Please model this.
Amino acid sequence: MQLSANTTAPYEDPLFQIDWDAVDHQCWWLPPDALSLAGVPEFEALPLADRQRLSHCEYLHLLQTGLWLEALFVERLALLAWRSGDPHTRAAYLREIREEAGHSLMFVELIRRSGIALALPQSAGVRLGHALGRWIPPGSALFWAMVVIGEELPNRLNRQLQRGVEDVTLSSVVFRIARIHSRDEAMHAALARRQCEEATRRSAPWRLALLSRVLAPMLGAFTRHVHYPPAPVYETAGLRPARRWRALALRNPVRRALARQTAAPTLEFLRRIGWNLRQDDAARHP
Ligand SMILES: [Fe+2]
Ligand SMILES: [Fe+2]
Model:
């Protein structure tokens, strides 16, 4: 089986494809319409520098999430690579580990250069996801379904960032990171979808029905985590009281629409291959 298309292209270290001296704070790190408070009148009335500061912090929240997911994924993938008897499959997994390490190195470098100290994600959803991610047997249908979710949702936000918005100056460094990351992630997601489809086909219907009850809250919690940063992100952006700003984000219809739109193709894919998920499983709010 062809696991990855990326077998012949020479590997390029992303760290050396970015002009790190160009890191700039006088610009957006996420387009204004991709922020959790986009369209909220109290937020839109703030000075430009304050709104841009939130874009820096929300982007760092995405990077922290990326670091967490990639660490978990690399750990599990290393085990799959080790166990695989097929040299092509093993090589495909090892290439993916190499690419994820390259992404994490970019994230670490931008976090370091940002001068912004953001706490590591610690929500109940993250702790549960971490525990499940380490407990679920790698290579199982549930494992690959979680990988599909973990790869696809943040990557769709990454694409939002690259689409270009008129009159918005986006950081060239962030744009480059997003482009490199989404190119690799598109291949990772394609591989995860194929593996997920195969593993799902091998699962008995009763088992899939049971596992769907585990996956549904995970999908909801992850969608929330990605789209609704925890209060410390607002605090670090200087928006206080942070809980009030977060509550505004949670009620924000613009954000809700984006969260639905971001999760929709993944939800549709999982439902199509047999997972028992409802349309609103990705859009519940705390
Ligand atoms: Fe990645
Ligand atoms: Fe990936």
Q: What stands out?
A: The first helix runs from residue 41 to 44.
